[in-house]
Structure prediction request, 749 residues.
Amino acid sequence: MSTASVVMPTSRRPALPNAVLGMLIFIATEVMFFTALISAFLVIRRERVTWALPAGIQLPVLTTGLNTLVLIASGAFLLWAGREFARHRTSSAQSWLLRSFLFGGVFVGVQGYEWLQLGKFGLSATEHIFGALFFLIIGSHALHVLAGLVGLGMMYWKLRRNTLRLPNLRAMQMYWSLVVLIWPILYTLVYF
Amino acid sequence: MSHAEHAHQSIWQKYIFSTDHKVIGLQYLFTGMFMALLGGFFSYAFRMQMAFPGKDVPLWGLVTAGEYNALITNHGTIMIFWVAMPVLIAALGNFLIPLMIGCDDMVFPRINRLSFQIFFLSAVVLLASFFVPGGAFAGAWTAYPPLSSNPDYSLTPLGSVLWLIAVALEFVAFLLGGINFITTMMNARAPGMKMYDIPILVWMIVIASIVFMASVGPLVAGAVMLLFDQLFAVGFYNPAKGGDPILWQHLFWFFGHPEVYVVLLPAMGIVAEILPVFARKKLFGYKTILYTAIATGTLSMFVWAHHQFVAGIDPRMANVFTITTVLISIPIAEMVFVYIATLYKGSIEFSSAMLFALSFLVTFLLGGVTGIFLGASASDIYFHDTYFVLAHFHFTFVPIAILAVFAGIYYWYPKMFGRMMNETLGKIHFWGTIITFHLIFLPLFYTGAAGDHRRIYNYDNFPDLAKPYMNDLRIIATIALIFMLLFQIPFLYNFVVSWKKGAKAGKNPWNANTLEWTTESPPPHGNWKELPSVYRGPYEYSVPGRASDFWPQNEKA
Prediction:
């Protein structure tokens, strides 16, 4: 190997940064995961042995609808934060990131309160297959929201310490967009 | 990290908590080899029960019916999830991808280390399941409910939960590994390495990882539901509660069948690396192989229900899946033909690695041909759950997980440890393995076609199946298995002794072209002192007009 001709690998520019590409692959897996949950829901509903809700239970369709808007707003705020960060407006990015985090927190808080209420009124996972699917699907999404909040918190922390890198924020935006965009699908599927 | 920093590490950092892709690859390899010995021992114990029912098995004792089921279940689980996957994808992928594409490490080294740690934990959880009250899970590796979901049926309340957790952890490990493999191949290639300059093995591992990532999500979802059924009797798979047991079969096989191709493609890749080197000929039809691999990966997502022809699925659906299943034999057959074309007019050297690679082609072809009878729903209704099925998939999985892996180990051992393995012992190992393998599974095709059901503990209770000629075939298979296991001793001896006493390998003992042979054996931390650039494809052997019959990828002219 003649050393003179060696081009160092920095000369190659990948089409997508590592963090973004890695997240893209992970998101593909997540989409398949939620697709499976949705198909399980549809398959079991089609067989509808005992489908109707137990007497006295009503799903909070309206509250959750408004809550959906809260989550969408959280997603939009994060996209805006990324735009500001890419333009080196760090303090503005910081405040939009914080808003995104807070709105996400409100969403999952309201969801948690709904769960407690539904449990109190007697929607049980073990006695009712709809209840089981409800808690499974909504719970899986809630876990994704919680993981996203941890991620948003880390982004905020890094931004304050000035160690945040743009590809990592982009990867976070992609993950959070998945969580936000898949929610309306789950909402219409399960609540209607 | 600079190279000076690479040099000073404690043993702890260097071998246990390393982020170096080579160390992680070897950790996967050794864990996989240990699990393979365990899985092999299990098969010995239950095969002895088949051949000599009710007799004490040396080194085990009496195999009770419950133990028998646990042994079969965990033999299958271990061989697929803790041997084939870690060795073919994780060990070879980790060790070879950065070396073959000319970079210093995976792009996410710490995620890579986490991947192995989770994998190791999963193996510990699986082994722990043997020591809990009730014993290890015994509901077959496919874990169909209600046997897997209801402890009243399985009688292993803790074993089935631990089994499921172990499998789920293992998936997380490979998810992390897969993200690493795909991103590394896309983003970290040496300067000059274009799409068609990437060695086929790297492509195969990456395509397999993509297929894995696309198919594992539904199984994770299914596993979560199964776990809730096991722990809280929720009833996702319980029709009495409005659930559906067939749902699990769909979710399982949606992953389970692509999984066959997830392990097949890397095995095909190993063979693609070895054939040109020992035939001194350019790999025939590089692009054909690549495209057929992509076609196989895509089609493999649409064949899963051929495992469920007798499960009560809609017969119209069975027709569709028969067609896709028979279709998938086309790209695979094409790949095998292209490999044979590589051999044509080559100057073939029958090294141990080459013998194993060639035997892969032959045995896998037999496995594929017998699969056609099972892919067609009409004949599958007869063959389903017989030993014919069992012999068929061992004729596919043993070439994949055993023969191709041995080919890979004999070929890359010099790179891994810097020394050559003994060829004579290698050939004894090869012939001992390949002859006994056929003696185990050819008779089982016959007993299966004659009606032997897969899940029977003792054939004495079935007079039609307990005829002397059937028993003789079972005994032949069992004795052949014992010899097959014994013939692994020369391999293990060779592996261990060559480590210290083998002939020094040098950089490129096989005169091969791919980049891993341009660095020291074993490669230092950081792989190259100066990272290589690439000027041509990986298979330029016996190029007319050149003095030497090989042309490394990094040589300028």
